[in-house]
Amino acid sequence: MSPPAILTDVLSRYTTTPALGPYPHVTLTFAQSLDAKIGRRNGSQLILSGKESMIMTHWMRTMHGAILIGIGTALNDNPQLNTRHLPPPPPGAAPYHLPRPVILDAHLRLPPTCKLLVNYKSGTGRRPWVICATVSDDPERTRRLKALENAGARVIQVSGLAADIMDEGVSTLPIPTILEALYASGIHSVMVEGGARVIGSFFSAKTPSGDSIVDSLIVTVAPTFVGEDGVGYGQELGKKTQGFEYVKAELIGRDMVVAMIATPAL
């Protein structure tokens, strides 16, 4: 088996046109309901993707160097960020590529007992990287940093992250700085899965030339309504998504998957 055509049509250019820096290629992907909701207001997990589109998402993971989520998603879902839904490789074939798990966690709230670290220590997952704000003389944050490192995580400190992440309701995460740190660490393609705050921040982020920092947008639309219990991915989405052009749509199981790519700013 191989990834669906909608993925190879959009993402194959990452291998034919390698990222030249200072940013890796970025794929922004998420599932939404028909009323554009991607999560619940109380923070509990909202599963929208059907079985077939979930498998597609795991194929997509194999096509990236890293998979990035925010600490809210990490705490609410305790994800594994692996490719466990894919069929076993054929006899004699190489195992599937596992992306590097990356968690945006300004205040180091990721539990050392999370599945990502348990899997890494058991040899069934890759070492997760935690991107946090610069740790100064705060004894509690220093203790959390040491606890995560002792559990196996690599902690990457990024200046400017703490104040931005505390500014609730404003998508101003220093995305270019975060991506520069990942590229400098050898990551040339990143799959961003959310949550809502992270998605909004990536939609808003621009390169110095004014281009979107996102290269590809792959959205799964589930045939369901969530209603007032749900949350979306930010206001004024029309302005944020200008500069993307349609590539392809494909019905995968019960879900419609839409792929777009960024176009250069005029």
Automatic annotation (TrEMBL):
Q: Which reaction does it catalyse?
A: 2,5-diamino-6-(1-D-ribitylamino)pyrimidin-4(3H)-one 5'-phosphate + NAD(+) = 2,5-diamino-6-(1-D-ribosylamino)pyrimidin-4(3H)-one 5'-phosphate + NADH + H(+); 2,5-diamino-6-(1-D-ribitylamino)pyrimidin-4(3H)-one 5'-phosphate + NADP(+) = 2,5-diamino-6-(1-D-ribosylamino)pyrimidin-4(3H)-one 5'-phosphate + NADPH + H(+)
What biological-process terms (Gene Ontology) are attached?
Answer: riboflavin biosynthetic process
The pathway where this protein functions is: Cofactor biosynthesis; riboflavin biosynthesis
Residue ranges of every copy of the Bacterial bifunctional deaminase-reductase C-terminal domain listed in the record: 24-258
| GO function terms (MF aspect) | 5-amino-6-(5-phosphoribosylamino)uracil reductase activity
Give EC number(s), comma-separated. Answer: 1.1.1.302
> Sorted alphabetically, which InterPro entries does this protein's record hold?
DHFR-like_dom_sf (IPR024072), RibDG_C (IPR002734), Riboflavin_Biosynth_HTPR (IPR050765)
Q: Which UniProt keywords apply?
A: NADP, Oxidoreductase, Riboflavin biosynthesis
Function statement: Catalyzes an early step in riboflavin biosynthesis, the NADPH-dependent reduction of the ribose side chain of 2,5-diamino-6-ribosylamino-4(3H)-pyrimidinone 5'-phosphate, yielding 2,5-diamino-6-ribitylamino-4(3H)-pyrimidinone 5'-phosphate.
Family stated for the protein in its record: Belongs to the HTP reductase family.
- Official protein name in the record: 2,5-diamino-6-ribosylamino-4(3H)-pyrimidinone 5'-phosphate reductase
